[in-house]
Amino acid sequence: MQRPEPPYYAVIFTSRRTDVDHGYAERASQMSALAAEQEGYLGETSVRDADGLGITVSYWRDEAAIAGWRKNLEHTESRRRGRAEWYEEFDVRVARVERSYGFER
């Protein structure tokens, strides 16, 4: 896994899904691809367990890049559908990453 050079920002999106799919997987894939095209996007990590709890962390160069992604019309529509159909609940946290390190075999 490649780590951006700090400092950068992490947007941590934690969610619990509904039982309704209605194109969720396809839309999530589209949003990942679209985010990757945005100015200041640095990457993402995403997991979801069998009970529907998911965590997606997207990495951004600065707060302006995050604001630009939030204003994207397709992303806005996905957020609307998420509230209406796909999520029981979600939480968003934005954090500035000052240090980053890891291990790789």
TrEMBL record:
- Pinpoint the ABM domain residues: 9-77
Q: Does the keyword rRNA-binding apply?
A: no
| InterPro entries named among the record's database cross-references | ABM_dom, Dimeric_a/b-barrel, Jasmonate_Hydroxylase-like
> Is NAD among the key words of this record?
no
Could you tell me which SUPFAM superfamilies the record lists for this protein? Dimeric alpha+beta barrel
Show the Pfam families listed in the entry.
Answer: ABM
Q: What class of enzyme is it?
A: oxidoreductase
Spell out the molecular function terms from Gene Ontology. monooxygenase activity
The protein depicted here goes by the name Antibiotic biosynthesis monooxygenase
What taxonomic ancestry is recorded? Bacteria, Bacillati, Actinomycetota, Actinomycetes, Pseudonocardiales
